[in-house]
Amino acid sequence: MSKHRLRGRGRVDASQPVVFTFDGKPYTGLKGDTVASALLAHGVHLMGRSFKYHRPRGAIAAGSEEPNALIGTRRGPGRFEPNTRATVQEIWDGLETNSQNKFPSLKWDVGAVNDAAYMLFSAGFYYKTFMWPRSFWDKVYEPFIRAAAGLGVSPSEEDPDTYASRYLYCDLLIVGAGPAGIAAAREAAGKGLSVVLVDENSEMGGTLLSEPQSKIDGKSAWTWLEDELAALKEAGVKLMTRTTAIGYYHENMIGMVEKLTDHLPTLPADTPRERMWRVRAKQVVLAQGALEKPLVFHGNDRPGVMLAGSAQTYLHRYGVKVGESPVVVTSHDSAWYAAFDLQAAGAYVQAIVDTRPQVRQDLQAEARTRGIPVKLGHTVTATGGRLRINTVRVNPLNGTHVGNGQWIKCDALLMSGGWTPSLHLFSHTKGSLIWDDDLTTFLPKDTPEDCIITGASRGLWGVEAALKDGSVRVGEALSKLGVEATVSDYTVADDRVGTGVTMRELPTDRSAGKAKAFVDFQNDVTAKDLRLAVREGMRSIEHVKRYTTNGMATDQGKMSNINGLNIAADALGKKQPQVGLTTFRPPYTPTTFGAFAGYHRGDHFEVVRKTQIDGWAEENAAVFEPVGQWRRARYFPKAGETMDQAVARECAATRASVGIFDASTLGKIEVVGPDAAEFVNRMYTNPFMKLAPGKCRYGLLLGDDGYIRDDGVIARISDERFHVTTTTGGAARVLTMMEDYLQTEWPDLNVWLTSTTEQWSTVAVNGPNAAKLLQPFVKDFALTEDNFPHMSCVEVEVAGYPARLWRVSFTGEIGFEINVPAPYGRALWETLWDAGQAYDITAYGTETMHVLRAEKGYIIVGQDTDGTVTPYDAGMGWAVGTKKADFVGMRGLKRPDLVAKNRKQLVGLVTEDQSCLEEGAQIVLDPNQPIPMKMVGHVTSSYHQGTTDHPIALALVEGGHSKMGETVYIPMPDRTIAAKVTGTVFVDPENARLKI
Amino acid sequence: MIQIHCPYCGETLPELEFAYAGEAHIVRPESPSEQTDEEWAAFLFLRDNVKGPHFERWRHAHGCGRFFNAVRNTITDRFYITYKAGEPRPDLAKLLEESK
Ligand SMILES: [Zn+2]
């Protein structure tokens, strides 16, 4: 039995010892312990170093609000987690834990010089430092901050655990299984409702676990609890422990994270580590209780200084005495009971120090009976001890006058500044709060959600009050759910109720400027920092928060918000409600990325769309790239080839004989109906009314602002049917845009739009031998220049499959696109591949497609355009049907800025030294001008593997169309490259190669 | 997550199924070519940026695909009503009264 453990006390199992390590040293705890309770049982208070000053810190609390005792936990390779609260992590055999923010050791830390360099790190330090000379930042501050910064260490290995994601729909969700939550559940149970009761702790009971002295309806608190939970289970209430409601979202959607394995010594098979529940509840009861406030005084962060209520939890729930000779300092009645209980457990309480001059007579009498010295109207002004408190300085208060201090020896200091209702989830609902002067705290008022708040969360104290309130308040929810509201009566003996006053910093006789009185323990924010922020002009609490970082640590200000507000309000000379409370945001407690990601990781991170021909590409060693959500073959390297070599070979082979390309990912929209031509004509810039069936036309799609949105070839299959193609990535966007105009602007048009992208497999064959290769497979149709000229389409049988055969080219060569019903895609491909061997057919990927099209000056929307490019900028005025009455973007093209001079225009670039430009590189006219230079455009496409004898590039350049033949410059880190402005067509400007 | 009533499907469904589509009741002019530069710029770019009840468009993108109109409070995210495209703008005062 460890030194400070009380045999037979608490809810830990004395028959089940558990061995874990902390900083490499083994400790034995009991089943049911947290890391913090087990360490405290061994007298270990020092559990970590603080974030900014590296001050030694111990556990200040016993639950999820803990700001100090953050540890790293490890379970073999990959399973490391930083910043776990030692007060929450349950121990199991073999658990490895480590303290954080220390170097080289927890007990001797070099970074603690930060503590001495206090002035450097005071409020607004980050903001002020940014304004210092830059050389200071690089040489002094940044290295210093980098060395000191960071809470814990990020895991470096891939997380081997799985995380699940579930939905839950219920009639009533109750958050918090203390007396109020359990009482609410009792009224709802057995009425045919689906009821869920959740609690973040490993077991239910809330305050009953920490203060079990009360007798409820004649039963001991723990017997009552056991019976009550069994009855709820029997009645079909879903009870969920280790489940934290992390956020309250719109319309009663609550996010909950259930931890399933972190407390287990061996991981069960096929069990996720955590489960994210997305709960939609018809009614919600919030019964999250209250959090104790620390007192703010010099040295209030020394290990051994702890919340009085948490000392109660360690005593009653874990059977651990946090000190043998503690001192209690308080401004609230509740801490007196902690003194009594510890004294009863064998500790020698050295003093109860209460800031109030008057305290209830019965409390004073009991202290006297138990032999505990009492100091009313006193303050605490300092603590002593290096890594653990060993003395506390206590001074009498006379009004505002602070008398001479007296040092009292102790091994723990238990403090209480009163209690703050836990309003986090209530605030997530945008619930309004109302300031209560008597309790010096905010209380919940109205919420727009179907939500009821009960118990200590709304400022009630004591078990009986909580039970009765839960029982009554849930009635409103039950009535709304259409069942009868009932109320149970409760009689509670030995209940502990109390009152207190709220303190700002405790009065002191020392220089306030030197006091290290912490408000936010995790971010090392002191009362002095808050007052400094106000002196330096911060007026809003949100500004004070950001300037000082008060409440911005991973504990989200659970302990610091109200103390911070009280101090800031005092410094501003205003009432607290006029200063306001900072916004509570989800998640309530730190949540793993795994829980949010759920199944969406690895192969399931994103959908991978594959064409019917993808399998062939994979078997033929294609290298793939993602385009939109598609997986596209990028190039097909032969053994030993680099990408550049493969692309150069594919380009040359296609221009020499024939290349085959999987174009199935192109977006396809079937536009059908009596008004189909009118619709296409209104959407696209080009004239479509007179396009004959059997003909194709290139289409340019603009927004109504006049900028290019998308492009593609459009085939008129029949009078009332168009086969529209879009860019691969633009398919969904274009269909949405078309639907928008059709549904809302032109509902009179009789047109149907259908996405057919995945209905067709599209095989493109390009090259001088393309027609020769294809002709034998085309049934009863001659692929001659006269019968089937460029930009024609026909419905015909190809290789025995029904096909829409197009004569189009994105390479500048004789080209065909064969659209067949998707499942035939691979068979068609293989048929052509086999027959193509006679022509040295070459499969090419997107990279070669990009090079070949660039050689012809064909644009790629989104690469050569960026949402601010007009058809005229792109040199494609020929595609604009200026005689049309209207099309989308027609009026936009006449906007003053779009017809202004010196717009960026698409041109070709050929470098003087034959080097290949970098895409995205900026272009200047005069390379000798002073920095910052005037940039006149950028390179949009650049290739060197093509069939020209020099690298080519496309670029957007201001006034580019009137700069033909001029030289522009591309400054790079190592040199400046000169390039000549050219047209955009580098190969076969007469289009002779398109002819069969 | 908000739940939205699709006036075409007649069902109230999670926000995930829907896509926001900007302010409602902005009609593309009948003859754009007759618009002045100022008028056309206003049609393209000027929006009300309302704090409070806002007339806006949504699309049941992962359902029936229809665009419809809604009145939503931009402070609370509450929907007062959704209605089909082409239907007249509802009386806001009446809506607010009914929602009390
Ligand atoms: Zn719908």
The major β-sheet of chain A equals: 7 strands, mixed
Structural class of chain A: alpha+beta
Number of domains of chain B: 1
Largest interface: A-B, 25 and 28 residues
Low-confidence stretches of chain B: none
In short:
The complex is a heterodimer of chains A (996) and B (100). Chain A has 996 residues and is α+β, with helices and mostly antiparallel strands.
Mind explaining what this structure looks like?
The complex is a heterodimer of chains A (996) and B (100). Among the domains of chain A are: 17-127, Ubiquitin-like (UB roll) (Roll); 163-290 and 421-493, FAD/NAD(P)-binding domain, CATH 3.50.50.60; 503-601, BFD-like [2Fe-2S]-binding domain (Arc Repressor Mutant, subunit A, Orthogonal Bundle), CATH 1.10.10; 662-852, 2-Layer Sandwich (Gyrase A, domain 2), CATH 3.30.1360; 901-995, Aminomethyltransferase beta-barrel domains (Elongation Factor Tu (Ef-tu), domain 3), CATH 2.40.30.110. Helix content of chain A is 22%, strand content 27%. In chain A, a hairpin with a 6-residue loop joins strand 3 and strand 4 (56-58). The longest helix of chain A has 18 residues, at 463-480. Chain A is elongated and about 115 Å long. Chain B is α+β, with helices and mostly antiparallel strands. Chain B has a single domain (3-28, 35-98), classed as Folate-binding fold. Chain B is built from 2 helices and 6 strands. A 4-stranded antiparallel beta sheet of chain B has the order 3-4-5-6, covered by helices on one side. A two-stranded antiparallel sheet of chain B has the order 1-2. In chain B, strand 5 (67-73) and strand 6 form a beta hairpin. The longest helix of chain B has 9 residues, at 37-45. The A-B interface holds A 249-251, 253, 278, 430, 448, 704-705, 736, 739-741, 743-745, 747, 885-886, 890-892, 894-896 and B 1-3, 15, 19, 21, 27-28, 31-33, 35, 37, 40-41, 43-44, 57, 59, 61, 65-67, 76-78, 85-86. Chain B: GO terms for molecular function: sarcosine oxidase activity. Chain B: This is Sarcosine oxidase delta subunit. Chain B: InterPro entries: SoxD, SoxD_sf. Chain B: It holds the Pfam family SoxD.
